[in-house]
Write a structure and sequence with these properties.
Elements lengths: L1 H17 L3 H12 L5 H7 L6 H40 L18 H14 L4 E2 L5 E3 H4 L24 E3 L5 H9 L4 E10 L10 E11 L4 H16 L5 E8 L2 E10 L16 E10 L1 H6 L8 E8 H9 L12 H4 L5
Bound molecules: phenylalanine.
Length: 341
């Protein structure tokens, strides 16, 4: 009888040598230890056939074998699991010291960056955004802005007409009229968007982007305009930057001004950027012409307004030192990726 037990023991020892993974180890263990079908389990069932005087010895032997087997399997399985884990660690190993491949990060287009910065500056002063449409009719782009047909000021902007009545807007000022027709003062809007003029050289493009500002309320004066533009130039070009207003002409503002900022390159001493003048022209602005307010049904005795029109490309070109507007439209990543504010 002992021999049978010993054979099973040998069978386990020999069989265990062949085991290569935890699944086969599990199955191998079941072959012996399963209480119903396992070889050791079946020995227990034979008890009743054993002669009574041998039964105790047999039972003890089987129990010892069982205990030894459980212990042995546990050790074998632990060894196999450990080997498997090591193999997995090895295959999933990451060398954290290896140099990584460079991931190229995109950035917003300089015009979009500039637009966002301008919106940030003026939103901080309480302006809301209004986006008008790029196709306008003659009334909104010109007539309502005190520029009736045959007005000489129409020549200031070479217009793309789509029909005698419709055109590609030449200025975001067209949006002023829509806003004032639909909203009562107080009004404080910022209107960014594309505008179109038949104009093409190093600093002009047939399509460019403007940002219109319009404030209408009681007692709005040029001082309010200057105050707001001072904040704008300081935020965009640096704390030391100041503004000055020069008389100018636009049909829809009276008085009209051309706004210069002190040269942020040389601090006003005179350099190539400011053409030795210490000042850089940045935008057109003025006090909204009473006729324009009245065209929109706003009482010009009670209310006054200020308006300004910023060229976004020009603002960006000055800020980032770009000397040809085409560089902003050519999508050359060598240029565009350098500008990431
Ligand atoms: N619309 C003018 C232009 O495009 C700029 C401007 C806007 C001037 C608002 C005065 C007031 O040249």
């Amino acid at each position: 009888m002992n021999e049978r037990l010993e054979n099973i023991r040998q069978e386990i020892i020999e069989g265990a040598k062949e085991l290569s993974n935890s699944k086969s180890a599990y199955e191998f263990r079941k072959k012996f230890t399963d209480s119903k079908t396992g070889k050791i389990g079946l020995l227990m069932k034979e008890m009743k056939n054993i002669r009574p005087e041998e039964r105790a010895g047999f039972g003890k032997g089987v129990n010892e074998l069982k205990e030894w087997a459980l212990d042995y399997f546990a050790k074998v399985e632990e060894k196999i699991k450990k080997a498997e884990l090591e193999k997995r660690y090895e295959s999933e190993k990451i060398d954290v010291t290896e140099p990584s491949t460079e991931i190229k990060k995109g950035n917003l287009h300089p015009i979009t960056q500039m637009r966002n910065q301008l919106i940030d500056v003026f939103a901080g002063m309480g302006f809301e955004i209004y986006e008008g449409s790029e196709v306008e009719n003659d009334y909104y782009n010109f007539t309502a802005l005190n520029t009736p047909k045959d007005h000489p000021a129409r020549d200031m902007q070479d217009t793309f007409y789509l029909s005698p009545e419709y055109l590609l807007r030449t200025q975001t000022s067209a949006g002023q009229i829509h806003v004032m027709e639909n909203k009562k003062p107080p009004i404080k809007i910022l209107s960014p968007g594309k505008v179109f003029r038949s104009d093409d050289d190093a600093t002009h493009s047939p399509m460019f982007t403007q940002m219109e500002g319009l404030v209408v309320d009681e007692k709005i004066t040029l001082c309010d305009l200057k105050g707001m533009l001072d904040v704008f130039v300081k935020k965009i070009y640096g704390e030391g930057t100041t503004t000055r207003l020069r008389p100018s002409y636009f049909p829809f503002t009276e008085p009209s001004v051309e706004v210069d900022c002190s040269c942020f390159e040389c601090g006003g001493k005179g350099c190539r950027l400011c053409k030795q003048t210490g000042w850089i022209e940045i935008l057109g602005a003025g006090i909204v012409n009473k006729k324009v307010l009245e065209n929109c049904g706003i009482d010009s005795e009670k209310y006054s307004g200020l308006a300004f029109g910023i060229g976004i490309e020009r603002t960006a070109m000055l800020k980032y030192g770009i000397n040809n507007i085409k560089l902003l439209f050519e999508s050359d990543l060598r240029v565009l990726s350098q500008i990431d504010d």
